[in-house]
Amino acid sequence: MSIDPAQLQIVHFPDPILRAKAKAVDPADPLVRDVAHRMIDLMHEADGVGLAAPQVGLEWRLFVTNGRDDDPIDRVFVNPELTLQRGEIESMEEGCLSLPGINVQVRRPVAARITAHDADGKPFDLDLTGFLSRVCQHEFDHLNGVLIIDRMSQIDALATRKALKELERAAASR
Length: 174
Fold this sequence. Notes:
alpha+beta
């Protein structure tokens, strides 16, 4: 499959790619690095803090983050493995670049550990806490076809029903 990173754009719900389970990629492939850099650009253009490959139409186990004030580094996670830490669970409002205009409360563990490869194909481990932990958990969910609307409360489900229908209508009219 030929991929032109410059042509990648953020896809929106209900695109079926958002529900696909992503597949591992070769972390040493230069195309993976090029796609990751394009994803970083798209994340910044959209004023986001994370973006996963399924959100740009690719079934790849890849995501990028930049936690702004909490972690102002452009990070690349290729073939990540995430281990959630036992302990404190925190509820916080989350949005998603693939679900524009929808923000819901999501409960997540405060801490996690991630093992992945960087944009140069080098393996690394990172202990995650606070906001970066939340962002990585959110993006990791995307690699497994899980969206914030799958983790929201019944109250948020009722509150977002109209906005989700509007996204479905917009997709049907394209």
